[in-house]
Known about the structure:
By secondary structure, this protein is of the alpha+beta class. It has 4 domains: 36-336, tricorn interacting facor f3 domain (Immunoglobulin-like, Sandwich), CATH 2.60.40; 347-474, Orthogonal Bundle (Neutral Protease, domain 2); 480-567, Aminopeptidase N, middle-beta domain (Immunoglobulin-like, Sandwich); 736-832. The protein is 39% helix and 24% strand. The chain contains 25 helices and 29 strands. The protein has an 8-stranded mixed beta sheet with strand order 5-4-8-2-1-11-14-13, with no helix packed on it. It has a 5-stranded mixed beta sheet with strand order 16-17-18-20-19. Helix 22 (741-757) runs antiparallel to helix 23 (761-777). The radius of gyration is 30 Å and the shape is globular. Residues 16-17, 332, 336, 355, 358 line the site of zinc ion (ZN). Keywords: Aminopeptidase, Hydrolase, Metal-binding, Metalloprotease, Protease, Signal, Zinc.
Amino acid sequence: MNMVFKICRMTGVGACILAYQLAFGAPRGDTLPQVAQLVHTRLDISFDYPHHLVLGKAWITLQPTQEQQDSLILDAKSMQVATVALQRDTGKQLLPFSYDGWQLRIKLDKRYSYRKAYTVYVEYTAMPDSLKTTAAGPVQTNKGIYFVSAGKDSTGQLYQVWTQGETSGASSWFPTIDQPDQRSTSEISITMPAPYISLSNGVLSSRQQHPDGSHTETWIMSDPHAPYLFMLAVGKFEKYHDSWNGMAVDYYMEPGYIAYAKEIFGRTPQMIGYFSEKIGYRFPWPKYAQIVVKDYFSGGMENTSATLFGDLLRRKPRALIGDEEAKWIIPHELFHQWFGDLVTCEQWSQLALNESFANFGEVLWGEYAYGKDAAHHHAYEAMLKYFQQCREGKDHPLIYNDYREESQLFDAVTYEKGGCILGMLRALVGEKAFFGALSNYLKVNAFKAVNANDLRTAFENETGRDLKWFWDQWFYRKGYPVLDISYRYNDLESSVAVTIRQEQEEDIFILPLKIDIYTGGETATQEIIVNRRLQTFIIPYPNKHARPLLVNVDADKQLICKKTDRKSLEAFIYQYRRGRNYLDRREALKACLLAQDTSARARAFLYTGLKDANDGLRKLVIQFMNIDNAAIRNTYAATIDSLARYDTEALVRQAAIKKLRSLNDPAYTNLFIRSLQDSSYNVVASSLIALNRLDRQLATRHMTPFLEDNEMASTILDIYLSNEDPKDNRSFLEIIARQNERQQQGYLVKYLRYLATLNDADTIAAGLEEFQRIVMGIDARFMDQPGMLGNLELLAEFKLDLIKKTASKSVRSSLEKQVASIRSAINHLSANMN
Ligand SMILES: [Zn+2]
């Protein structure tokens, strides 16, 4: 089938992590220089749930940052402002104001002198659903506060309300100066009906019961934090209480998920302790809570002391086994509590000071929890992700002043490359200096906004070294070195000439590198500095009479680069056995995989790779092994079968199943059936697809227990799509019908692709009726209507094309009927959508 469907523009915000590739945006804001600094924010909040309104009272205390301040501008989006007043000890004095739906301009009662604090009172109703955006992003991802239907209980319809401040959503639920370089202490009181509890920043200082059955919870944060990190979540949640050193560490989940809280979040106290010690700065906030909410559109958000997660962790633990995103998101968000929350990027162009650190925090936790190899594997995969983005033409400097929209900042440069740059810096200055500098950076800049030069100052103070060159090439310049490394041995002179050429088009890089020279006995290390386009380094043999067995350039293996290393296969194999780290082995296995079809030695060595201690490398070898080559298949099929059954890591079992299913060999039927019982859903999904390829009827029988299981929904729909069978129509639609709205949109597109494969006009007509019903049931604000209509148009065009190609009258007549029902669906939907 050669039909290309447009992908529905799924919603997503550049919140914190992992969903950053999805578009979002907000206007670059009023660039008037601010003349005031937030000091304290007190909020009294309640909600009109059915109408999605925030009923708020705000007391904002500010200090002028210049003399003679007589007016104030607050960001306040899509609100009705009832009252603006000056709050005095004696009462309120009304102040004149103007409001344009975006900013609140207040005339103060007099001229205030520098640092003379005053408090303004604002009574308002925020209407997030009416927010108009002028930016590229869809409204639903930058409106700051979200009302989500969360089923029913004996009290009636349940809701969840939760916020997303980054980048400028805070001012959609309270008036503030919505800039990352502002900071304020906070006191947030939330009044809500009985079944609900709340979570916000800081400590829960009081809980007050009201005669009407509602209650008010007040949260106090007595250290200042940036407005975009303010949060609240309200809903029917349960709390699992944990602790670290006497400090509360709580996990909030819906009642249906709370049983999994300990399994999902249980290592958090250990993580807090480890990070506190490693970076020499105790966890800075009075508590740490994590909450999982419904229908959040990103991975997680590091609100101060109260991280919020979405669907990624709203799953059974079985679905999280082998899920790489879920594995790293908890340490990522936690590390932000220091890097992002305690010290905060002063502008979004400096976002790397938040996100690069959070990605580096993942690696740091990985070293502790899973070992050095696993951490290095994670860091290396991150670098590959950055290269992938470069291939798409989207490279930019880590500190990126020229961005057009904020979504360009939430990407693999700011996150993945930035994390790797910190890894390089660590290798450059050494372990002690690196963590010493970080500790000082946090102490000097605690509760302040920072930029990349503050970080450089901390490292230069700690090391006494001028590091401008490092910052210039890695923080302020885009690109990466592309190296060609070659060797010429001269046994007469007892030396090896190592030639390094920088092949990238951009300027050359300065690269201090270590070269390890292996002679069989002791290993010698030589330090070099690569700083020209083409350089040759003459390195004497450590043992005059013996040519080295391996010369290993970039021995630390932390460098962000692409390289062609022209060493022999034997040298690579030696590197595998004797090299210092994970990447030594990965490079060697890659060399063997590249030579597997031509070299028996390389083929034989792959066995070692299948037994490597690192699961990522085992997976890599399975994935790239050319099993179509009979010699390889005969040698390794049994080993891969055994890995599919017994490997301890789900990633490896899954890779093995995928490899074996590519053989289409009925001999593996029993393996695939057995693997449907695997502890990881990822393995189950791959096994079900494998079984379906071998024997569709058998697969249908084994699919039954999974039909009701949402974790398997996507896999089952993929199977239906590949089967092209009208009998699956009903089940396809039933599965879509029970998904949340966001999921439904993606699956509806898949459904249209399925209809493209069918030739049964009656099934298609009936299916499209149901399709329309589901589309009309999705809240119009969350629906990509043009996208969905566009996909229907594509389906009609596809069928029209088939009509042109067919000679059979009866087929043509069926196709014409199909086109008629598609057209009817388009007309009906266009007429009823707004
Ligand atoms: Zn992050």
